[in-house]
Amino acid sequence: MKLAIAIPARYGSTRLPGKPLAMIAGKTMLARVLDVARKAAETYDDVDIFVTTEDSRIDSHAQELGAKCIVTTDDCATGSDRVLAAVRQLDKKPDFIVNLQGDAPFTQPATIRKIFDTFKQNPKSEVITPVHRLSWNDLDRLRKAKETTPFSGTTAIITEDKRAIWFSKNIIPAIRGEGNLRKNSATSPIHQHIGLYGFRSDILEKFCSLPQSNYEQLEGLEQLRLLENNISINTVTIDIEEGMIQSGIDSPEDIIRAEKHIKKYGEHIK
Fold this sequence. Notes:
The protein has 270 residues and is an alpha/beta fold. Helices cover 37% and strands 22% of the residues. It has one domain: Alpha-Beta Complex (Spore Coat Polysaccharide Biosynthesis Protein SpsA, Chain A), CATH 3.90.550.10. A hairpin with a 2-residue loop joins strand 2 (23-24) and strand 3 (27-28).
């Protein structure tokens, strides 16, 4: 079984041009994401790690970091499309690919390992993605954030057997009798989605061949295209220390926030 970690790293970000080359506490964002990928792959002997980009500057930096880099065209609509374009250039296609976004330096290597292990246990899995059950305090923080940035943070509804039913930028499900639940449970019933995906190779091909779906366009969530086309998404539940950063880096303000986070908590790569 061949596994891969693909890191799509696009230069042309609107809010933060050259984002993968941005410095965060003395290291580029791409260097930090590569650290995550390499740490995640340490316990396996069958993981291929590669960066994929449309820009020669990122290509050069990836090579300086000792990473394989596959250059793709600038017309890839999404990170998933870029990953597929890169996979098609590989001599040997992997059976399963984790799409580790190049702006997600706070991803925990253990999360990637959990996705890999879940696929190894069930190779029929089509897509695997992590979720985190929010504490009441983190739910309150998410609600507060949505007062000013309503499209920040994605929540998910999952079944008892960890299959995703739906994702939304709204906080779902609604909670009746929240006061009683807070008294009787240390965690809320809300699962926040962590934007990391593992695709079976044939499913990645299928996903990228499908047109954008109705609810995908309304919510701005790619994963709804999968559900709207009856592609199953299995979830793995991960633990995240309360208050920790769970999102990617999208703006100069996010870099400031990330540096403060590192100063306070350290690198947190395990």
